[in-house]
Amino acid sequence: MHSLEGVTRSDQYRALGLSTFAFTVCFAVWTIFSIIGVRIKGELGLSDTQFGLLVATPVLTGSVSRIFLGVWTEQFGGRIMFPLQMIITAICVWLLTSVHSYEVFLLAALGLGLAGGSFIIGVAYVSQWFEKEKQGTALGIFGAGNVGAAVTNFVAPFLVVAVGWEGTARVYAIVLALTAVLFYLLSKDDPSQTDRKKTGAKVVSAADQLAPLKKLQVWRFATYYFFVFGAFVALASFLPRYYTGAYGLELTTAGIFAGLYSLPGSVFRALGGWMSDKWGARFVMYFTFIVSLICLFLLSYPETSYVINGIEGPIEFTFGLGVFAFVSVTVVLGFVMSLGKAAVYKHIPVYYPYHVGAVGGLVGMIGGLGGFFLPIAFGILLDWTGVWTAPFMLLFLIVAVSTIWMHVAIRRMERRRHPELQAETDLSDLPEEPLEGPDGPAGVDKYP
Q1: Gyration radius of the chain's alpha carbons
Q2: Number of C-beta neighbours around residue 164 at 10 A
Q3: What is the C-alpha to C-alpha distance for residues 22 and 178, in angstroms, rounded to an integer?
Q4: Chain segment 312-358, per-residue pLDDT in tens
Q5: Where are the beta strands (DSSP E) in 255-303?
Q6: Does the first or last residue of the chain, that is N or C, have fewer Cβ atoms within 10 Å of its Cβ?
Q7: How far apart are CA 193 and CA 357, in angstroms?
Q8: For the range 4-9, what are the long-range contacts, defined as Cβ-Cβ under 8 Å and sequence gap of 24 or more?
């Protein structure tokens, strides 16, 4: 591990504050299609599947680029990579306003998607500034930059009404470029880069950085992130469309309700980091998955009418979530997903302190791919089934599989650590001595 000698609290707070602000701006840009895409959908007459692909395309670039950006950040430092990524993205966002066909929109969206790669740059940069026991909290605070999705959901609809979607894109491009300049002027090289310059050490090769990706554990972490982050991005983009379609709301109202989901799904990531530092990431992941299963069951249940043959004749009733109940459940879902995002990334600098960029990049890439494939799957499900709640049924299935895999992996690990209990079939968990009875210890023959 690199030395933090000479690093002050002021340096740590500066790195964390600048990175969080830059990530917030980048994330707001990354999810811009959730709002302007609704207008583009109307102008081009797109189907739900085409709209889902348009919304998901920036996520593809932001996902795939993470593994490369993570390696490059380990090699060249976040102070260089963060501004460079933001300037390139700002140019792509500005050029978006000159596009008029669906196919070219998809190409422009690929460039805009680089904004999503900012996450792994920030993770690799911020983790270098903090001690191991504080990295979970620090990365949780940084990850709260996901609130950029809420910023877009709250602000962009009013910008679209005021200046059109083209003007909205230009405003976003200008803000992103200014953020890049400010970050470079105010930030410092991270401690590992400073040490490397002092010692003249060579840059770690990409092959060495990518070596841990052979471990199944890394891919298991990535699967968790496919839901807690990928589904978060997908829902942040999908919910405005859901509210306007399923409940017939205006775009501005739909944006506010979607923002109510995105806000706790972002700002409480810092709490998730603190909880992971205090009680462990395993506890936080169990809590996230169990509550998510409950929420997704409620969200996925379509409005249904029932007729029961009662004693005195048929009894009719309906079940379905009204708009305010639906919004409330999404707020709870967003909250626990924010905790889960922090818990996943708590593992990485602890297990792989010298490969944060590569491992974090892969985990972020898989999670981001969830944000790419899920909106497309949502659109396909809506076109095929005609049931508005079908996307939530898919998410319920994903969480159920992830929960089972995590639990099985944990139980296997416990059996490896306590081989003497593998043959035990009478007692569950990790038993203490059986309770004593009036005639002496219970099971004295079996437990001498």
Answers
A1: 24
A2: 14
A3: 10
A4: 778 887 777 888 999 999 999 999 998 998 888 787 777 777 666 67
A5: none
A6: C
A7: 14
A8: 4/129, 4/130, 4/131, 4/191, 7/129, 7/191
Q: Residue 305 — φ and ψ, nearest 5°?
A: -105, 135
| Coil, helix or strand at residue 8 | coil
Residues in the chain, total: 448
Q: Which domains does the chain have, with CATH numbers?
A: 9-191+208-417 (1.20.1250.20)
pLDDT, residue 181, reads 95
3-state secondary structure of 261: helix
Question: What token pair was written down for 187?
Answer: 């930030």
192-204: b or e for each residue (b if 16 or more CB lie within 10 Å)? bbbebeeeeeeeb
| pLDDT the model gives residue 444 | 46
Tokens standing for 49? 């599947």
The pair phi, psi for residue 313, each rounded to 5°, is 130, 180
Answer for the pair 369, 230: CB distance below 8 angstroms, yes or no.
yes
Q: Are the C-beta atoms of 215 and 209 separated by less than 8 Å?
A: no
**In this structure, which amino acid lies at residue 107?**
L
Give the angle 97-100-101 at the CA atoms, nearest 5°: 135
Q: Which residues of 224-248 are buried (b: 16+ CB within 10 A; e: fewer)?
A: bbbbbbbbbbbbbbbbbbbbbebee
User: What tokens were used for 390?
Assistant: 């079908």
Please name the residue that has the structure tokens 């895409």.
Answer: 37
Q: How buried is residue 328: exposed, middle or buried, by Cβ count under 10 Å (0-12/13-18/19+)?
A: middle
3-state secondary structure of 321: coil
**Rounded CA gap, 37 and 134, in Å?**
39
Contact 38, 96 (CB under 8 A): no
- The predicted-structure confidence for 144-180, as pLDDT tens digits, reads as follows 787 787 788 788 888 888 888 888 889 999 999 999 9
Distance CA 327, CA 172 (A): 27
